[in-house]
Amino acid sequence: MLDIYHFSNPLSTDCLKTEERLLQLSYDLSERVHLRFIPLLDHHLVAKLTPSYLRDSTTDNNDQKSCHIAMDYKAAQVEGNKKARRFLINLQHALTSQAYSLALVTNIAETARLNVDDFLVNREATETFQAVLEDQALAKQMLSKADPCIAIDDPTAIDTQLLTNLSIDNLIATFAPHCAKSLAPDILRQHLSI
């Protein structure tokens, strides 16, 4: 099984494109894949992050907005990774043209077929907050700096591979060996040119 981690800025349209490409790649790979999206938070902010900080903070600046998105994503993950990934991508798309709000998040949760009542409780839960902190600790452990990247943990390789160049060409070069033999690189390029 291939473990793929996408450490991303949840407000970046480039990271959104990469997430969509990774979703497509997960269907094209010939082996089982465990795909995890991990929204990166500013490490200074993580150091002072508390549940009350999140409850009392607004979403006026991008750091605070990113924290709320990370909490929303983790709350969605309670219902499964596939639904959570769809929720995150839909939320990121919506944020390109709309302001972050509880109404928007609730609407996206409904669209992703989440149990909205449970989701609203989970996004305020201490367990969700702890899960966000665990993700940030994993990012700190795996990454030398907090830049968006992909980490690939391949059981046949000795070290975890980090990709900071997230271009289509680099994704093809990296993942082509893991694709079905019948999938030519030009077809893979078409799949990733979304």
Structure description:
This protein has ten helices and four strands; from the N terminus they run βαβαααααααββαα. The chain is an alpha+beta fold. The chain folds into two domains: 1-40 and 148-194, 3-Layer(aba) Sandwich (Glutaredoxin); 53-146, no CATH class. A four-stranded mixed sheet has the order 2-1-3-4, with helices on both faces.
Secondary structure: elements and pairs:
Layout: E1 2-8, H1 13-28, E2 33-39, H2 43-47, H3 51-56, H4 62-77, H5 81-95, H6 102-111, H7 116-122, H8 126-142, E3 149-153, E4 161-163, H9 168-175, H10 185-192
Parallel strand pairs: 1-2
Antiparallel strand pairs: 1-3, 3-4
Helix pairs in contact: 4-5, 4-7, 4-8, 5-6
Uncertain spans, ≥5 residues at pLDDT below 50? none
- Main β-sheet, spatial strand arrangement: 2-1-3-4
How many helical stretches? 10
Number of domains: 2
Helix content: 55-70%
Strand content: 5-15%
Category by helix and strand content: alpha+beta
Number of strands: 4
Separation of the first and last Cα atoms: 25 Å
Rg computed from alpha carbons, rounded to a whole number of angstroms: 17 Å
SSE order in H/E notation?
A: EHEHHHHHHHEEHH
